[in-house]
Design brief:
GO terms for molecular function: acyltransferase activity, transferring groups other than amino-acyl groups. Belongs to the universal stress protein A family. Pfam families: Acetyltransf_1, Usp. It comes from Methanofollis aquaemaris. This is GNAT family N-acetyltransferase. It is a single chain. The protein has 429 residues and is α/β, with parallel strands linked by helices. The protein has two domains: 270 residues, Rossmann fold, CATH 3.40.50.12370; 138 residues, 3-Layer(aba) Sandwich (Aminopeptidase), CATH 3.40.630.30. It has a ten-stranded mixed beta sheet with strand order 5-2-1-6-7-12-11-8-9-10, with helices on both faces. It has a seven-stranded mixed beta sheet with strand order 13-14-15-16-17-19-18. The protein has a two-stranded antiparallel ribbon with strand order 3-4. Helix 8 links the parallel strand 11 and strand 12. Helix 3 packs across helix 4 and helix 7 packs parallel to helix 8. The two termini are 39 Å apart.
Length: 429
């Protein structure tokens, strides 16, 4: 059974005025399940302080009383609430919050935007940023004050869309969030073309039609500029009570990052509460040969790899797409006297996921019916050996392929290169 966004919610509070105002957002979360009120006690708050010969309450006792009072208030409002206090001896408050989130098996965590704590320590602000950046598997609500203007049933909900899977999933949630009015916003780059603008208008129209069929009132907007700035500006102008934004953008999925720059900037600067949706646990991958009209995509990937260019007359290019974005490529080029494998490349930020192996496997399956030759870097000889390539002397290369490294004047090892060959139909793949 798939959990709802707010089945189990952890609300991290420091008892500041800001946190008190943010706490008013909790009851507005639709279909709210159980809430765990959490306070983290940091270093320097040890023991039971004394004043004028009397023993004062310990930090735990102070926090427990404040949490109990808040829990009773929620329960009176019909919210199932309990509370807990945890310590963070090393002062890593975000890590302590997220550890509690995992222990509670929470589906979402709610933090305020900023504030000073009950005992004078800075909790929310830098901590909310830390929680947001690291909370990969749960939804995050950055709650801001002014709860009376943040009910999705009475104020507009702004949903920025980039037309990839993250945006589609975010838009699909809007009716379930109880949003009566939705603003769908797409931000174009300053150098966008006419065709890109028309495509964006068409995508917005399709999303609007779907949401309206669910009974939601929808406005669509196209803006140009820096995405995070435009989102914040539109939220303010539209009087939005909530921004719903995916943790990762359309192309962020394929990068080794925890949160996209747009989502992070919006969460920090928004004039209202922000719901940052968790990264989905599964990503779609597709490995296939590129059509000639897709070769510019490969050239864009090769920007970080000697600026390679593609030639439809001689090249077959194989790519791995993650959520529709090209993440790795490999090329088989036909020379007059043989086939050469090169251009096997995955950008640095996308490495460590086996993408190069998958595109190499696809290339060998498709082209391995003939002898394949390559100039491998020395550190990748073992990698290509797994696909049936064996080291050969430079003289074993076909002349036109050998000529590509003529600048080495016979010293290929000095150029960090080893000629290799895979016999037709041979080796492993």
């Amino acid at each position: 059974m798939v959990s709802w966004l707010f089945d189990r919610v952890v609300f991290a509070t420091d008892f500041s005025q800001n946190a008190e105002e943010a706490s008013a957002v909790l009851p507005l979360l639709p279909r709210l399940g159980e809430v765990t009120l959490l306070h983290v006690i940091g270093p320097g708050e040890e023991g039971r302080p004394w004043f004028a010969g009397r023993s004062l309450r310990s930090p735990e006792e102070t926090a427990e009383q404040a949490l109990s009072t808040l829990a009773e208030r929620y329960q009176e409002a019909g919210v199932r609430a309990r509370h807990r206090t945890v310590r963070s001896p090393d002062g890593d408050i975000p890590a302590a919050v997220l550890a509690a989130v995992r222990e509670e098996e929470a589906t979402a965590v709610v933090v305020g935007a900023q504030g000073y704590g009950l005992i004078g320590t800075l909790l929310l602000g830098s901590v909310s940023t830390g929680v947001l950046e690291e909370a990969v598997g749960v939804h995050v609500v950055i709650a801001r004050d002014g709860a009376e203007t943040q009910d999705p049933g009475t104020t507009p909900v702004l949903c920025p869309v980039a037309f990839g899977r993250p945006s589609r999933e975010a838009a699909a949630l809007l009716p379930a969030l109880g949003a009566r009015e939705v603003v769908l916003l797409h931000v174009l780059k300053n150098d966008h073309g006419v065709e890109e603008e028309r495509a964006a208008e068409g995508e917005l129209a399709r999303l609007k039609a779907h949401l309206e069929s669910c009974g939601t009132e929808v406005r669509t907007l196209l803006r140009t500029g820096r995405a995070s700035d435009e989102i914040v500006r539109v939220a303010r102008d539209a009087g939005a009570g909530l921004i719903v934004i995916p943790r990762l953008g359309r192309t962020d999925y394929i990068r080794n990052i925890l949160i996209g720059s747009t989502a992070l900037a919006v969460a920090k600067k928004a004039p209202c509460s922000v719901l940052v949706l968790a990264r989905p646990p599964d990503l779609s991958e597709e490995v296939r040969e590129l059509a000639p009209e897709e070769f510019p995509l490969a050239e864009e990937v090769w920007t970080g790899y000697h600026g390679q260019t593609a030639d439809p007359a001689t090249d077959r290019i194989f790519g791995l797409f993650v959520e529709g974005t090209l993440a790795a490529v490999a090329r088989c080029r036909r020379h007059p006297d043989g086939l050469e494998v090169d251009g096997v490349f995955t950008p640095m930020e996308m490495r460590g996921r086996g993408y190069a192996r998958k595109v190499t496997e696809a290339l060998v399956r498709a082209c391995g019916g003939e002898d394949l030759y390559m100039h491998s870097t020395l550190d990748l000889v073992g990698f290509y050996g797994g696909y049936g390539f064996v080291s050969i002397p430079e003289s074993g290369l076909p002349p036109s392929i050998r000529a590509r490294f003529s600048f080495a004047i016979g010293d290929l090892r000095g150029a960090n290169v080893q000629p290799m060959m895979r016999p037709a139909g041979g080796g492993s793949s």
